[in-house]
Amino acid sequence: MKEEESRICLECSSKLRGRKDQRFCSDFCRNAFNNRLNEDANKYVRRINSILRKNRRILESLNPTGKTTIDGLILAESGFNFHYYTNIYSTQKGTDYYFCYDYGYRKIDNNQYLLIVKQNYVK
């Protein structure tokens, strides 16, 4: 008679009973293992999302009417990070608008920025 292999949970090292391909003793251990495995990637994504949400809040607070012009220094002093945006919309004339979700901006003259809210026709 063949001696049964000792299989253990990859998370808590308790003995496994049941299916031969089983790797975890419970859903809790499976989730804990995968969360730990993806922790670095999740931290990176959370940090970027936090920056994007902050940028959106700043644009929303500085643009209560839906379209306004503001000095770039005010954006920077508010903590706006110009390196992070969700998409770029290019008009037919070649003007680029940078968006943080539904709030956008474009640089105009003398460090001035035009702030806008995304319209339905903008993809």
Whole-number average pLDDT?
Answer: 90
Distance between termini? 67 Å
Number of helices: 3
Query: Could you name the ranges where pLDDT drops below 50 across 5 or more consecutive residues?
Result: none
Q: Could you give the count of β-strands?
A: 5
Q: How do the helices and strands follow one another from N- to C-terminus?
A: HHEHEEEE
Question: What gross morphology would you assign?
Answer: rod-shaped
The main pleated sheet reads as: 5 strands, antiparallel
From the structure above, extract its key features.
123 residues; alpha+beta; 5-stranded antiparallel sheet; 3 helices
Written description of the protein model:
It is rod-shaped, with a radius of gyration of 25 Å. The chain has a domain at 40-117. Helix content is 33%, strand content 20%. The chain has three helices and five strands, in the order H-H-E-H-E-E-E-E. The longest helix has 24 residues, at 39-62. A five-stranded antiparallel beta sheet has the order 1-5-4-3-2. The model has no long low-confidence stretch (mean pLDDT 90). It starts with 26 loop residues before the first helix and ends in a 6-residue tail after the last strand. The protein has helices at 27-37, 39-62, 72-77; strands at 67-71, 87-90, 96-100, 103-107, 112-117. With 123 residues, it is of the alpha+beta class.
